[in-house]
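Section 5.1 Outputs to date
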Amino acid sequence: MTGPIRVLLADDEHLIRVALAQMLDLEEDLEVVAQAATGDEAVAAAGHGGVDVAVLDLQMPGLDGIAVAERLADVLPSCGCVIVTSHGRPGHLKRALTAGVRGFLPKTTSSATLAAVVRTVHAGGRHVDPELAAEAIAAGDSPLTPREADVLELAADGAPVDEIAQRASLSPGTVRNYLSSAVTKLGAANRHDACAIARRMGWI
């Protein structure tokens, strides 16, 4: 008989992480062997080996859950990744699937469902919450090019064009063109509105 499925839990909210660990540890075939409060801690913990499935919060300090999954695909390809999130935006789901994530769930999921998904992922399967999948399909793909998305993300904190240009290694004129294109594609009133729309959809 094989041992329990070894689980890594990563969530920057301490109470949620501890509660999840306690609930999963009640399952006879699951064992939480590591916990992390940031994406970087999660990568480091998994790097020591001994982890079968990583349950990752989408939004954490430093690396987000999807970036952690991308790193783990390189350093620990045998580890399956499950993303849990309170921000189930369409773009996030598509990005997660592209990164090789095999489970994607809202934080409203029951502990029984999460445990079942951990088992499914460990067995090589995948599980995406049906409502999140339907929203992603309805939303369609991002109309933004990767460069437009990059520039729009740099503009999200209200930085002036010259600063964005310096950070993106582009000319101010090129930055204005990218921002103008993004505003037009998203049907936004201005670049601040465009940032809000793109963030809401999970495209930046």
